[in-house]
Design a protein that fits this description.
It is a single chain. This protein is an alpha/beta fold. Helix content is 32%, strand content 22%. The chain is built from 13 helices and 15 strands. A hairpin with a 2-residue loop joins strand 2 and strand 3. The longest helix is centred in the first third of the chain and has 17 residues. The relative contact order is 0.15. The structure holds zinc ion. The site of zinc ion (ZN) has 6 residues, from loops.
Length: 452
């Protein structure tokens, strides 16, 4: 049994001072609030009678964790190799084509060894930002000419190993990517992405195995990259799909099939409460209704959507229709879920010229337990008995956070990834702030090799 005494923590009932947590086999066996701190509860919540008992056991030592501790963050949409593009795609004026050219250049150069190195460093950056689970949308499968490696899942295995080395959980969303566009075969580096047909994609993916820190999920790259008649062959307990990120995708679907991308997914039976639609930026009213009725997860990646000039998706309308918000750092122009959280609200303000769409608690729910559930980890993202023991601690006295109240608003509107001081995943300390420079060096080495 390990015990931690949290100076201040975000519990399901709100921000609470002096919380004792006990961890057995990587899960919380007890979350106890000391009786004297009841008045410090910030939210409306009541403490359950069980939690009113004194957490103190005479003679027991609990490791103190100063600061504001929140549940683990879930990064629900990642393309790990895009981390090598940061900064470099902004040269000159950084057009979409500058970005795409460089993205394909990196995709062309990676092999299982260099991908392991790059992804390990990238995932360590995520851990240092408080991320305890990543959803890796993985389509870089084969050798540059499209031939499978001796191990056809060599690249996927590199990503799973990278997550293990970095200390976070991974949901490998193995992505079916068969076409350059509707009716167009894969071109150039895209040959690395394609398994030829959805059936051969499924056969390869069936060889991947999960474990206590790894889930295998499925993804459809987009309705552009998987032909209509094969969409229904891409299945998994967890299914993610890029949806209507740019207007061009909608135009192509309507021109080719006469329906929107959302309608194509609905007709293939893919809109369920286990499906995540990523971006969901350019939707019709009917699309929003259908997605909401299906209770899909809608994964927003605001820092990438702004970097690529995609537009601002209807996050609140999707929520009000029944969809559930999650967040991702996608292209890793930024890896900072605090920034993603506030961007959802701030983008809505710009789009509507009004404040007050999302509360900080709702945004924190998206970044923690809703996000985890969408990746197949419903047992993570809450500081609660029975949940996986993830603890992310923020410094409430940094230059950014000082004087902000050390509460939900601090986490959403003041903190940055750089304010994370310690991260515990499944009961184990996987990051302390002294490691930041070393992670920076590891990133520089891995990225330097790719561009040299
Ligand atoms: Zn993406």
């Amino acid at each position: 049994v390990t015990a931690y005494r949290l100076e201040r923590a975000l519990l399901p009932q709100g921000v609470t001072d002096d919380v004792l947590v006990r961890v057995v086999d990587g899960r919380f066996s007890e979350v106890a609030v000391s009786p004297g701190t009841r008045g410090n509860l910030r939210m409306s919540g009541e403490i359950s009678p069980d939690n009113r008992q004194s957490p103190r056991v005479p003679g027991e030592t609990a490791t103190p964790i100063p600061g504001l501790t929140i549940p683990g963050l879930a990064n629900c949409h990642s393309h790990a190799f895009h981390r090598a593009l940061r900064g470099r795609t902004q040269r000159e004026r950084g057009t979409f084509w500058t970005w795409r050219e460089q993205m394909y250049a990196v995709a062309a150069r990676l092999d299982p060894d260099s991908y392991l190195e790059l992804a390990t460093a990238t995932y360590r950056e995520m851990v240092a930002a408080g991320i305890t689970s990543v959803g890796e949308f993985h389509y870089l499968h084969h050798q540059p000419d499209g031939t499978p490696y001796d191990d056809p899942n060599a690249m996927g295995h590199a990503l799973i190993e990278a997550a293990k080395q970095a200390g976070l959980r991974i949901t490998l969303l193995d992505t079916c990517y068969l076409a350059a566009g509707i009716g167009r075969p894969p071109e150039g580096v895209q040959r690395r992405f394609s398994d030829g047909t959805a059936k051969s994609w499924a056969e390869r993916v069936a060889e991947l195995k999960g474990d206590d820190h790894t889930r295998i999920g499925a993804a459809i790259h987009s309705v552009r990259a998987v032909p209509r008649d094969q969409l229904q062959d891409v299945t998994g307990d967890v299914l993610h799909v890029h949806l209507s990120e740019q207007r061009a995708e909608n135009d192509q679907a309507i021109n080719a099939y006469g329906v929107t991308p959302t309608q194509l997914l609905a007709e293939a039976g893919h809109l369920t409460d286990r499906t995540t639609v990523v971006h969901a930026t350019h939707l019709t009213d009917a699309d929003i209704r259908v997605l909401g009725e299906a209770r899909v997860y809608a994964d927003f990646c605001p820092t990438t959507e702004r970097d690529l000039g995609d537009g601002i998706g209807p996050s609140r309308r999707l929520h009000d229709a029944g969809a559930r918000l999650t967040l991702g750092s996608d292209s890793h122009a930024v890896i900072d879920l605090f920034e993603e959280m506030r961007a959802v609200e701030l983008d809505e303000r710009l789009a509507t010229e009004q404040r007050g769409h999302w509360s900080a608690s709702e945004l924190l729910a998206a970044a923690t337990h809703t996000g985890h559930a969408s990746l197949g980890w419903p047992d993570a993202g809450r500081i609660e008995v029975g949940q996986r023991a993830d603890l992310v601690t923020i410094d409430p006295a940094s230059t950014r956070t000082a004087g902000t109240g050390a509460d939900e608003q601090t986490a959403v509107y003041a903190a940055a990834a750089a304010d994370v001081t310690q991260v515990i995943v499944d009961g184990k300390i996987v990051f302390t702030e002294g490691q930041r420079r070393e992670i920076g060096r590891q990133l520089a080495t891995a990225i330097g090799k790719i561009w040299s």
